Amino acid sequence: MPLIAIAIIIAVAVGGGSAAVAQTALPDSAIWNFKAYVSEQVQTEFAFGENAKADMDLYVIEVRLSEAERLISDSRLDAAVCKKIENSLNARVASLERRIARLREHGDFTAAADIAWRFQAAAAAHAALLSEAQANAEAGGSAAQKAVLGAFAERTRAMLDIASGISADASAAAADAF
């Protein structure tokens, strides 16, 4: 029994240290996978209630977009890293959509509308920043940079369209409920 307790303490200490280091990792780093697919997923699972889980999804979406912007500013966003970010974004956007739908199904129209509005606002802010970065790349970037950035900016604008639709639907449902 004491051996099991010691093993658990060591695992928590090492895992906690890894999680702390991973929080600052960017998608072009090996430890980023731990951050994106273990640490953030555990945080989401331990969030209490659909609203808190949706907040975590939204937080991760904003983190992924900020990571992309940081890599762009450092000229480190390539096609492989962009694909990792997009895969994570796609999963979190789909999860957020499901959570907003569940909030609406349970009659929590105000929370659904609030989260959807915050999603739309975040997507709009990041889409604007990425459009600016894309314009800068067009003026002086390499062909590869232009292609990667153009595709990622387009994906972010598509995410904004999704967010706008979700927000409009959730706001209409909230208004109908009152």
Layout of helices and strands, plus pairs?
Blueprint: H1 2-22, H2 32-46, H3 49-73, H4 79-105, H5 109-140, H6 143-177
Mean of all residue-level pLDDT scores: 88
Secondary-structure-derived class: mainly alpha
DSSP helix fraction: over 70%
Number of helices: 6
> Major β-sheet, in short?
none
Rg, rounded, reads 19 Å
Shape verdict: flat
Distance between the termini: 57 Å
Q: What proportion of the residues form beta strands (DSSP E)?
A: under 5%
Number of domains: 1
State the total count of DSSP E strands: 0
Low-confidence spans:
3-11
SSE pattern, N- to C-terminal? HHHHHH
Any overview of this molecule?
- It is a single chain.
- With 178 residues, this protein is mainly alpha-helical.
- The chain has one domain.
- It is built from six helices and no strands.
- The protein has helices spanning 2-22, 32-46, 49-73, 79-105, 109-140, 143-177.
- Helix 4 runs parallel beside helix 6.
- The longest helix has 35 residues, at 143-177.
- It is flat and about 55 Å long.
- The N and C termini lie far apart (57 Å).
- Residues 3-11 have low confidence and may be disordered.
- InterPro entries: DUF5667 (IPR043725).
- Residues 1-22 form the signal peptide.
- Residues 25-89 form the DUF5667 domain.
In summary, what is this structure?
This protein is mainly alpha-helical and 178 residues long. It has six helices and no strands.
